[in-house]
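Researcher: I need the complex structure. Ligand is pyridoxal-5'-phosphate. Inputs:
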Amino acid sequence: MVTSASPATDSVAPAAGEAAAPFEQGLDRLSPNRNLAPITARLDALGRLEVGGVALGDLAQTYGTPLYVLDEETLRATCRAYRQALAAHYPGDALALYASKANSSLAITALVASEGLGLDAVSAGELLTALQGGMPAERIVFHGNNKSAEELQLAIDRGVTVVLDNWNDIELLSDLAAGRARPVRVLVRFTPGIECHTHEYIRTGHLDSKFGFDPDQLESVLQHLAGCAWARVDGLHAHIGSQIFELEPHRDLAAVMAEALLLARSLGHPCGDLNVGGGLGIRYVGSDDPPSIQEWVRVVAGAVAEACNQRQLVLPRLLCEPGRSLVATAGLTLYSVGSRKEIPGLRTYLSVDGGMSDNPRPITYQSLYTAVLADRPLAEATEVVTVAGKHCESGDVLLRDIRLPAASPGDVLAVFATGAYNAAMASNYNRIPRPAAVFVHDGVADVVQRRERPEDLLRYDVLPHRLLPVT
Ligand SMILES: Cc1ncc(COP(=O)(O)O)c(C=O)c1O
Ligand SMILES: N[C@@H](CCCC[NH3+])C(=O)O
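Model: Output:
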C-alpha cells in the first residue's frame, strides 16, 4: 500500500481465531473507514461471506468473475459521515464534493447526489456521467490541468463551476465566455507547497506539481481576473495528494489557503468558497491506521475556521473533495481461482481471471490488498501464495505472498477495498473485457455496469478496405 511501510506479508488472510469476532459480529464494521470490509460484511448460515445481504459466492455464480461489488449501505454511510462531520465541526456552510475520478458511474452519482453531496469531475466523460446521473450542475466543480475547449464549453453551457488550473484555462474560457449574460463561476487552484507522505505519483501539493498555479503567480492571476468581466472568482482550491494518513499537512494547508483567501478578497474577489481537496487515506491492510472521516473533518474544519478567524475573514463555505475515503471500502472484487504453479523452495503462484486490467494499483504503486476466500473466509490459512493476474506481464501480481487456505480452481477470491481507483483505472490490456459492477443492498443485487464482451472491444476498430483479406 502506498503510504504504509508495512511488509507485503501484512496482506494476510485472517486466521481462524483472530477474524471470527469481527466477521460474526460485524460491530467494528459499523464504523466505516476503520475497517477493510464493507459495514454489511457478515457470515451467512453456511459460513460464507456475504455483503449487502448477498453471499459473494452467489454473486460470482450469477454474474461471473471478475466482478466489482459495491455495498450501497457503506457508500451511504461514508457520505453521511462527511455530511454530519462537516455540520458538527464547521461553524459555516460546508459541502463535500465526491471526487468522481475514484469511481465514476451513473449509479454512484445518483446515490451520492441523493445523499446531498456535490461532485468533482475532471473530464467530459466524468462530467456527462455526473449530469446524467442526476447531480445538479450547481453542485459540480470541473477540474483538469489540460482542459479542452470542448470540455470547457460543456461545463459553462451546463452551469458547472470551473476550477482554473493555468493560464491556458483563462485564455480558453475568456474566448468561450465572452458575450455571455452572466459571468462564469470559477475557483482558482494553486499549488500550496506542502509535502506529505504518500506515493510520489499521487502527491499534488508540492511545488513540483503539474496541477494549479504556482503560489508565486497567484497574486498576478487574481489581479488579472479582477479585470475579467466574464469571470466571477468564487473561491480558491488546493489539494495536497491522496492516500494520506497524516493530519498535519491538512492543518498547514488551511493556513496557506486562508492567507490566499485574504489576498483574493483584498483584490475584490467575492471568494465565498474554500476548497481544500481530498486525500484522506483508507485501510488496505491490517497495519494501515488512517484517521476516521470524523477525525479528518474535525481537524480540517477546525483548522480552516481558526485560520480564517485569526485573519478576521468572514468564514467561507468549506468544500472538500473526498474520493477514495467515500468509495474504496464499499467495494470488493471477486475473482475465480484458476491455475496454480508451484516453484519448490521459491513461490506458489495462484492465478485468477483478472489482474492489472481491473486493478492496476499494485503494478502502478506497489499497493497492498487483503483477500479471503469468499465461501470460507474463516478457514485456516495454511499456505503462502502469490495471487497473479492473467496478463502477459510478470509484474501482473495482485497480492504477493499472502496467507490463504488451500484454494482450488473455481474457488472465489474476494479482494477488499477495491471501490476506488480500480474500475476507474481499468483498461483492456491484452484485450480483456472490463468486469461488470453490481450494487448490493438488503439481499438484492443490481448490475450497475454491464460486463464487456470480447466483441465489444472490436467496436472502434476499423479495417481499411485495402487490408481486407483477399478471398
Ligand atoms: C483535485 C483533486 N480532488 C480530489 C481528489 C481525491 O482524492 P482522494 O481520492 O485521495 O480523496 C484528487 C485526487 O487525488 C484530486 O486530484
Ligand atoms: N489513482 C491513485 C489516486 C490518484 C488520485 C487522483 N488525483 C490511486 O489509486 O491511489
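Model: Summary of the prediction. The chain has two domains: 8-71+328-457, 73-325.
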